[in-house]
Specification:
371 residues; mainly alpha; Leucine-rich Repeat Variant
Length: 371
């Protein structure tokens, strides 16, 4: 019995010891690997360029009667265009996107935001003058005439024969309360207007023209902003006398852009006799433009006859330009593209001093100023 008791006691100890032992643990499940969300990839250069071109096409397709269109497009396109303007590696693409954003904001009635993007454009491409031209107009449209003046001066430094730019500089100065500077700008306009007329019409004593054909054509186009009586008579004179069809074509294009009613008789007679097909087509187009929307010439070379002392004719009759044709109410796109003729007025002036020139032995000289 004692031996049996010992065996039972041993079994109890083993049992107790076994009950106190830690239960066998099941190894925890191995967690599945968690895949981190991949960061969105930046759009490629090609995708950014396509985004800009698509936005540009959308704006170009906007109809004038769609008054809410600019605001709608701004809401749709601005976020994507901002990314192009900020992140594109190509600097010209960033500049173009900034310019398009400025245009959208301006057309949507937010001039301050437009000016900000125009400034950004000018900063991105400082060697380009067109962003500064747009910036000057936007500043002036917002009433910031003093701020517009240095931008407009930069435009004229690039092309001193841009007559429209001189008119605008005169207007900005006058509206900024700088009457003397405004008069000087209008005086500079008048000097260059006369120089361009000389470049178009001056002849040597042997009857040859002082300026070559391409420069005479450039002078004709550069005179487009000058819608006064004197310039109109000079253009008609040149159309009647110039023997080269390239120049006659440029003159007809200038007349058609100006759309002055006084050109109609001269263009009608000249087109009937014209044998060069391109020059004839330009004259017919000019007559159609005049018929569509004729304008009257202003009697003064500059708005309200504002000329610096000693630079214009005495007894000048003040006159306003037709709506949308001169410095008053000027908006981008009113003048034809490429109307400047860099340095032509200065070249014509120097040629006139040294060549012993005359306009034509037969008939009166072309009037450079109103009579």
């Amino acid at each position: 019995m004692r031996n049996v008791a010992r065996v039972v006691g041993a079994l109890l100890l083993v049992s107790i010891a076994g009950g106190c032992a830690e239960p066998a643990r099941t190894p925890p499940p191995v967690p599945k690997s968690v895949t981190k969300a991949e960061a969105p990839t930046a759009p490629s250069a090609e995708a950014l360029a396509e985004r800009y071109l698509a936005a540009k096409d959308r704006l170009a397709a906007l109809m004038p009667e769609d008054k809410d269109g600019p605001k709608r497009l701004l809401a749709e396109l601005a976020p994507g265009l901002r990314e192009v303007a900020e992140k594109a590696a190509d600097v010209p693409l960033r500049a173009n996107a900034s310019l398009l954003l400025g245009t959208l904001y301006e057309r949507a009635g937010d001039p301050r935001s437009a000016i900000s993007f125009y400034r950004q454009t000018a900063a991105l491409v400082p060697a380009e003058i067109e962003p500064r031209r747009v910036l000057a107009l936007a500043l002036a449209s917002d009433g910031q005439f003093a701020e517009a003046i240095p931008e407009q001066e930069a435009v004229l430094k690039d092309d001193p024969d841009d007559l429209e730019a001189w008119l605008l500089l005169g207007e900005f100065n006058v509206k900024a309360g700088r009457a003397d500077e405004g008069a000087n700008a209008y005086g500079a306009y008048e000097l260059r207007r006369k120089g361009l007329i000389d470049g178009l019409t001056l002849q040597n004593k042997d009857g040859t023209f002082v300026m070559p054909v391409e420069q005479r054509a450039a002078c004709a186009r550069a005179l487009i902003p000058a819608r006064d009586n004197g310039t109109a008579l000079a253009l008609l004179y040149a159309l009647d006398r110039d023997p080269d069809p390239t120049v006659r074509q440029a003159l007809a294009e200038a007349m058609g852009t100006q759309r002055l009613a006084g050109y109609k008789a001269g263009l009608t007679a000249k087109s009937a006799a014209e044998t060069h097909p391109e020059a004839k087509a330009a004259m017919i187009w000019a007559l159609q433009e005049i018929e569509r929307d004729p304008l009257d010439a202003r009697p003064s070379p500059t708005p309200d006859g504002q000329l610096a002392a000693g630079t214009g004719p005495t007894g000048q009759v003040p006159g306003d330009s037709a709506a949308g044709t001169g410095a008053k109410g000027q908006v981008p796109g009113d003048s034809a593209a490429g109307t400047g003729a860099k340095g032509q007025a200065e070249k014509a002036g120097e040629a006139g001093k040294t060549a012993g020139t005359t306009r034509d032995g037969a008939g009166p000289p072309a009037p450079a100023t109103p009579r």
